[in-house]
Design brief:
- There is one protein chain.
- This protein is of the alpha+beta class.
- The chain has a domain of about 170 residues.
- The protein is built from 14 helices and 14 strands.
- The longest helix has 26 residues.
- It is globular.
Length: about 450
Amino acid sequence: MSTNYSQLSVGNFGALFSQLITPRTLDAIARKHRKSSAGAPAKLSTFWLITGMVFHVLQTCGHLSTHIRQVTRKKLSDSTLSERRQVLGLDLFLSILNSVLGTLAKVDTQPRAFYKGFLLTGIDGSCMSVSNAPPIKKSVRKTRSRRGSSAFFRISMAAIYELGTHNPLAASIGITGESEMELAINLLPLMREKWLLIADRYYGVAKFIFALQGLKVEIPCLIRVRKNLKSKLIQRFRDGSCLVEVRDSTGQRIILREIHARVCRRSGRWISVRFWTTLLDPGLYPAKELVELYGMRWEQECAYKELKINLRRESLLLSHTLITAGQEVACLILAQAIVARVRISVADDHAPVLQISFIRTLEIFRALWSLAPFIDNLIPENSWPLLMRNIFGFIVQQQSPPRRNRSCPRAVRKPVSSWPRLRRNSNVSGLFRYEVIRKHA
């Protein structure tokens, strides 16, 4: 293995977190957001406070003061930590997310994370509920849903992920009722060249696509759109796709490539789908490849499952104010970024990173990070590489098997002849089938 085990989470959690962001970098960001320089120096630096907060969200039980003492060996009360968190605010954590999060996938080790030189990325939003604590109930109303008022107020967020590694690339958090579209558009300036953005129907509107095209760098996209959106046909291609003109509410025009297809779900039911993409060359980017590529968008949902179910300890955020709740969400994203780096190190050259179990990796390293401060002086320093090699090997042995290509759903085996006849441009990939339709709405 090429991994340097002596530097990967061996001594304590702080050593690993400092690889994500150095104390000097974090302190420089904190100085920009400091409201006043008055007062005595803090007993606990901002770096170690945020390190303890990220360590806290990784644990299954315990108070923040306990976990900070475990990481830093300094004793502070929960009330003192609560006051420090209120002073820090949320903008500091958003700046840390924008400065820390970055790409991890490499073409030679994670080829599934790329498509013809483009890094596969996804954007989507989500919500997290906060408790009905008195400070929250006084400042906001409970979030409205399709069935009326919900039981709790929800914090909205939008994030960009590496679809091939489940690594967060950028995130935006709203604590005052911001819409998902507003948060997502705020993230677009953080997109980089050679990133291919894949999104669902919520983003398949002219407003989002025009905002994406207005960036300084050209970002290709593949977005599913609703059936009732209008477009003007310009040219048809032999692969079944066509060139169309789309206008927004102000009359601005943009040229896109439109693809109509049918996808068969696990139930055997076929559904019609429609895509817009800025990859206009049908020779370089065939329609059937793009339809199959859209299946990678589901990895965004899997990444959110890891964030909201596997990492979180409760169904509600544990914070009692909106500011600290936003900080908690930011710490969860930072924790997910750390686990993503560990999974990539574990996978190395032995398995695709998505076959390395997120839950199993989290459980083992959560226990290691908790015990490291107590056993650091008991284990010789030259024994840590062997310990890490054994842990990595144990996780690799429990990797998920690769997905098999199936001609019918897993639940019921049916003869292939009983299926609807596939057209010339149809294909079977993984757990779904698809076919390109020569159609223009």
